[in-house]
Amino acid sequence: MELETYSTKNTLLTNYIDCYQLYQFTDSVRFTAIPNGRVELWVILSGSFYLYDYNSGQYQPAQDLAIHPPTNQLTHFYVPDDLICLNIKGKPAILELFSCYLTSIPSPNTSFRSFLPENTVRKIEQFRRDFDGEVDVSLLDDWLVGLLISCESGSRYQQILNQFESNFDVNIGELSDRLHMSEKTLQRTIRKYLNLCPKELLSLVRFRQVSEYLKTDPSARLIEALDFGYYDQSHFIKECRKITGLNPTAFISKLKLPVNDLMIEWCRNGAFS
């Protein structure tokens, strides 16, 4: 399996996306995505994969062009064979780019085709047809900037999310004070856009930050999680179990990929073991 990561070249998009990711699988694999407070938008370039559906208790085919909103649940994936997939890892504010087309928060694995205008969908389909192994970042940037302009985004919601990203080590009361709004107003705003409560979002942002730190620095100790706003080491261990279902040591051991939010559960050829 190969993973290439690309950064946006347009400064207008830095508040909306973390990166573009190109995944290439050459064998069957099962992996689990931990809740990370991020919006995933994928474009399947070749092959297919499946997502576990909690309602049916079965794996369902992933849409070829889809949006997957933030969630507080684990997301289980199964890749049966060869797959090439582009993923746009979006910050929560990226949902604002679709705000003029969406009437509610999209369900997991929602197709772009169900809400975006045809001419907008055609642009990303053209990217898929023209893909030759190289990711055209400028084309992706232009597509997202077009959505940004169409929906006239960049409002109070963006300011709120910026506070969550930069102040993950404080509590909700302090955040609401900094934003000059009541906790109830903050809760309604976050729930409206993300279907999460502020405490859940803050927890996911904080855990993403500390897991990235532990992933990139193998010598780091769990006690250093206190620098990210946890009360003590037991608090971090409890949050880790709540979010991933594992203790920190077991969780870190499953991070075989160069990202901090995907746990490899099984691979047919054992390449990740």
Q: What is the general shape? A: globular
What portion of residues belong to β-strands? 15-25%
Low-confidence residue ranges: none
What is the domain total for the residues? 2
Structural class: alpha+beta
The main β sheet shows up as: 6 strands, antiparallel
Order of helices and strands: EEEEEEEEEEHHHHHHHHE
**Which fold name is given in CATH as the topology of the largest domain?**
Jelly Rolls
| Largest sheet strand order | 1-2-9-4-7-10
CATH architectural name of the largest domain? Sandwich
Enumerate how many helices there are, as a single number: 8
CATH class category name of the largest domain: Mainly Beta
Between the first and last Cα atoms, what is the distance in angstroms? 13 Å
What Rg do the Cα atoms give?
A: 19 Å
